[in-house]
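User: Second chain of the day. Same drill as before.
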Amino acid sequence: QQAWIGLGGYTLIVLADDLHVNMFLAVIVGGMVAALVALPTAFLAFRLRGGYFAIGTWVIAEVFRLLVASSTEWLKGGLGRSLTAAGLIARPLREQYTYWLAVVIGAGAIALVYYLVRSRVGLGLTAIRDSETAAMSVGVKITRIKLLVFIIAAFGAGVVGGLIYLNALRITPQGSFNIQWSAFMAFIVVIGGLGTIEGPIIGAIIFF
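Assistant: Same format as last time:
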C-alpha cells in the first residue's frame, strides 16, 4: 500500500506544479496512475504466495522509493518537493475543499466495498478465502478476481496518497513510501475487526 500512496502523492505534485492541472482533480488522477502501475506489478507479485508475497510486495514498494529518490533533477530526490500550486488558493478555502474531498473519498470507498462484497466478486472472494482449491473447482476465476481487487486497492490508496499530500503540502520519498502506511492499515483492521465493513471504520476512529 505504501507504494500506491507514494505514487499518488508524487502524481499530485507533478500534475499540479509541472502540468498545472487542478490539484483537487490531480488527487483522483493519482489513483488512476497507481491503478495503471498496479497492473504490471501484479504479474510480478502474483508469482509469490503467503509470506513470500508480503515480502515481495514490500520489496517492490522499496524499488519505487529508490527510483523516486534517485530522480534528483525532476523529483528532487531525497530532498522532496513542495506543492507550490497550493499558494494559488486561499488557505481556508483550500482546507475546506480538502476536507469535503476527504469526506467524498471516504464515503465512496465504503460504498465501493459494500457493492463489491455483495456482488459476484464478493462471493468469489469469500470462496477464495475459505479454500482456493475448492473455489477453483466450482469455477471461480481466482486470478481475475485477485487482480481486480489488487487494482481497486491500488486506486484507493493512490487517491488517499494524493489527499494526504494535498493536506501536508510537502512530500519526500522516505515519508510517502514508508511502510508505516501499510502497518497503520493493518492495525486499523485488526482493532476494528476482520471480515466486516464497519470494522475498519471503527478501527480508524479508535486508532486516530
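Residues 91-117 form the longest helix (27 residues).

User: Great, on to the next one.
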